[in-house]
Write a structure and sequence with these properties.
alpha/beta; Uridine Diphospho-n-acetylenolpyruvylglucosamine Reductase, domain 2; Uridine Diphospho-n-acetylenolpyruvylglucosamine Reductase, domain 3; five-stranded antiparallel sheet; four-stranded mixed sheet; about 20% strand
């Protein structure tokens, strides 16, 4: 097991443009399931609070965040193929196992082919896209409980909700060690065609993995507030009028977004939003931290559903008052 001391949070964060002065006193990087089990059990036994991370592709570390103990699962990545199922360690890349499943002709992972992050994190947060979800394909998962025991948990035990589980909601504390996934055999060529379709659509409608954490909020469909409905209606009318009197080809979504931001006096947010997607934020520079909370407040003003899908490390309540 690799142990690092006095590590800057910036060095383990997915985001590159967040200025972070925080430190990790002790970072443990186990190389296999046994080492992960041993270090987490030791910390649990001694009532030592610790943070657990994978690739951090869904984690936003606040600039002031620091911790004494952190465990990384990213090197715990054994895969065992069995008859009817595959057992995957918690640190296996979702992208990697999805590609393996597709190439072997197993359905249920075609929409996850470009999803960053680890399998353990995907179960923890009930991650999914294009009607594919790791939890839906999960037979069971082996977890180290906070009392030091290892238990087999099933989907019903996880309290699954939209982009959330009981683990993510802190209803109980446990470390996912490995996950058993169902193998459903289908036509390989059809599966590859479908995954290619999803990949193409993702590239056309979503930003790449750099400088963003995917969907910020867990709402599958954003529901506007009363004020939000009014602002969107005005922006749509303005876009219609502009397009009606213009002979040039115009980007209606971009015009509508800029109109909304102008109405809300938030023009400086434009460069941090991807297209007309109100659930994507780009941490593109050193100002992004402050702009993110302006974006969150704007979203709460415009839409009813504002539960975070991303994991935020640190006390964020002071930012949204």
């Amino acid at each position: 097991m690799e142990i690092k001391n006095n590590i800057e949070v910036y060095n383990i964060s997915w985001l590159n443009h967040v200025e972070n002065s925080g430190k990790i006193d002790n970072l443990y990087i186990p190389e296999n399931r046994k080492e992960l089990l041993e270090i987490c059990r030791e910390l649990f036994t001694n009532n030592i609070k610790f943070e657990l991370i994978g690739h951090t592709s869904n984690i936003y570390f606040l600039p002031e965040f620091s911790c004494k103990y952190m465990v990384s699962t990213r090197n715990v990545k054994n895969i065992s193929w069995k008859e009817g199922y595959v057992e995957v360690d918690t640190g296996v890349s979702v992208r990697h196992i999805s590609n393996e499943m597709i190439n072997r002709g197993f359905a249920g992972f075609e929409g996850l082919i470009d999803l960053p992050g680890t399998v353990g994190a995907a179960v923890y947060g009930n991650a999914g896209c294009y009607n594919c979800s790791i939890v839906d394909m999960m037979i069971s998962c082996e977890c180290l409980m906070s009392d030091g025991t290892v238990k087999t948990l099933y989907k019903d035990d996880l309290g699954v909700k939209t982009r959330s589980t009981a683990l993510k909601r802190k209803e109980f504390n446990a470390v996912i060690l490995s996950v058993k996934l169902n193998l459903i055999k289908v036509n390989v060529d059809e599966l590859k065609a479908l995954s290619d379709k999803y990949r193409k659509h993702r590239k056309q409608t979503q930003p790449g993995p750099n400088d963003n954490l995917g969907s910020i909020f867990s709402c599958p469909i954003e529901r506007p507030t009363i004020i939000g409905y009014f602002v969107i209606a005005v922006a749509k009318l303005y876009t219609f009028l502009v397009s009606s009197f213009s002979n040039d080809k115009i980007n209606k979504n971009e015009i509508q977004k800029k109109c909304i931001l102008k109405i809300l006096r938030a023009n400086n947010l434009n460069q941090y939003l991807f297209g007309n997607n109100w659930n994507r934020f780009i941490w593109k520079d050193s100002l992004a931290h402050n702009m993110f909370w302006k974006f969150v407040k704007l979203h709460k003003f415009m839409f009813k559903d504002n539960n975070f899908e991303i994991e935020i490390k640190g006390d964020f309540n002071k930012y949204i008052k």
